[in-house]
């Protein structure tokens, strides 16, 4: 007696599933996105090489106390010399249970920072454990800086990746030897929190004081006894203003509008009104060191710290116009990851 078949069964008969093709894939960056991409690609049977310019995995979660002393503002052409932007006191603003991978819990460990909102080192150690659990380090090349990614010659789109082994170079770049390797696909996971995004304020170039982007902020001590203006009322701006307030003569926190002033921030401002002041908008900077605010009031400041975010930057990438960055919008990308125009020509090109 014949058995009935579901519509799904009948449809599946018409679907021809292609056998898995093993591709040679380059992942640029060994931060959270790069490591997750590498793990998934390896699970699918692909050959993966992760290129990481730092001496360890972790991306921005790998704390680097160095700053670029010659360019604290981050105004030079990308890329920045120091990739890390983490300040020493940074803690998570998302609970640890929301930060981990779904199949690899970010659980507290004995002897470490067990708080629900731990410090940055806890995330770094978690990513190290993630690498060990899935054997990812065998695919990672540390101290390897990618200098160019471009289409390789040939009928099928493949990618030529040019890199430099920083372990063989002097600190000033002398002795650099570039190496080229061709990959079937590339995952760009170099991070979005390294290249400072600066405002355009009249007088910035002539202002005589010290100007710093939060990218180059690590600890409050360099600002002891100073009058400091913190431009930007986001999470890092509030963090840094509160921390610098403890050692500075006074701190002026600049918001774009009153909409940025939450009830919690208003309470903090009231509690520390002697040393922490709210300002709305910077109108201009004067050569004599004065900062003029939107309401016409002024303050003679020693330092301005710009907590104004970061620009998406892929200085090594040449897609021949297939992917562009316009006012921090990367596109066109399907699901904010895959360039549609390259889909038929390349097995994978992604921007986590």
Automatic annotation (TrEMBL):
EC numbers on record: 1.-.-.-
Keywords, sorted A to Z: FAD, Flavoprotein, Monooxygenase, NADP, Oxidoreductase
Cofactor: FAD
InterPro entries for the chain: FAD/NAD-bd_sf (IPR036188), Flavin_mOase (IPR000960), Flavin_mOase-like (IPR020946), FMO-like (IPR050346)
A Pfam family: FMO-like
MF-aspect GO terms: flavin adenine dinucleotide binding; N,N-dimethylaniline monooxygenase activity; NADP binding
Family statement drawn from the similarity comment of this UniProt entry: Belongs to the FMO family.
Biological role: Catalyzes the conversion of methylthioalkyl glucosinolates of any chain length into methylsulfinylalkyl glucosinolates.
Name by which UniProt lists this protein: Flavin-containing monooxygenase
Lineage: Eukaryota, Viridiplantae, Streptophyta, Embryophyta, Tracheophyta
């Amino acid at each position: 007696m014949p058995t009935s078949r579901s519509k799904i069964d009948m449809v599946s008969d018409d679907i021809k599933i292609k056998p898995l093709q093993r591709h040679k894939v380059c992942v640029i960056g060994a931060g959270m996105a790069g490591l997750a991409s590498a793990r998934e690609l390896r699970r699918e049977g692909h050959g993966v090489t992760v290129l990481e310019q730092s001496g360890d995995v972790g991306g921005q979660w790998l704390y680097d106390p160095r700053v670029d002393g010659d360019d604290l503002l981050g105004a030079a052409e990308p890329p920045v010399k120091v990739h890390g932007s983490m300040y020493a006191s940074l803690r998570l603003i998302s609970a640890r249970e929301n930060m981990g991978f779904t199949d690899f819990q970010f659980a507290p460990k004995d002897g470490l920072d067990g708080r629900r909102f731990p410090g940055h080192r806890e995330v770094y150690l978690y990513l190290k454990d993630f690498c060990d659990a899935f054997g990812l380090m065998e695919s990672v090349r540390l101290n390897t800086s990618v200098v160019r990614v471009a289409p390789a010659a040939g009928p099928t789109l493949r990618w030529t990746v040019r890199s430099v082994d920083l372990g063989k170079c002097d600190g000033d770049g002398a002795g650099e030897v570039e190496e080229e390797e061709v990959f079937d696909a590339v995952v760009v996971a170099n991070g979005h929190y390294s290249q400072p995004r600066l405002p355009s304020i009249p007088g910035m170039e002539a202002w005589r004081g010290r100007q710093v982007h939060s990218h180059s902020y690590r600890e409050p001590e360099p600002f002891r006894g100073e009058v400091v203006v913190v431009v930007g009322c986001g999470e890092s701006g509030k963090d840094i203003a509160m921390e610098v307030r403890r050692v500075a003569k006074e701190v002026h926190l600049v918001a774009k509008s009153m909409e940025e002033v939450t009830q919690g921030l208003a309470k903090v401002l009231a509690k520390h009104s002697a040393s922490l002041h709210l300002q709305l908008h910077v109108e201009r900077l004067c050569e004599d060191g004065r900062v003029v605010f939107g309401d016409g009031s002024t303050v003679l400041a020693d330092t301005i710290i710009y907590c104004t975010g970061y620009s998406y930057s892929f200085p090594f990438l040449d897609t021949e116009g297939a992917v562009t960055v316009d006012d921090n919008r990367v596109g066109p990308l399907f699901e904010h990851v895959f360039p549609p125009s390259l889909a038929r020509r390349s097995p994978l090109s992604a921007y986590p």
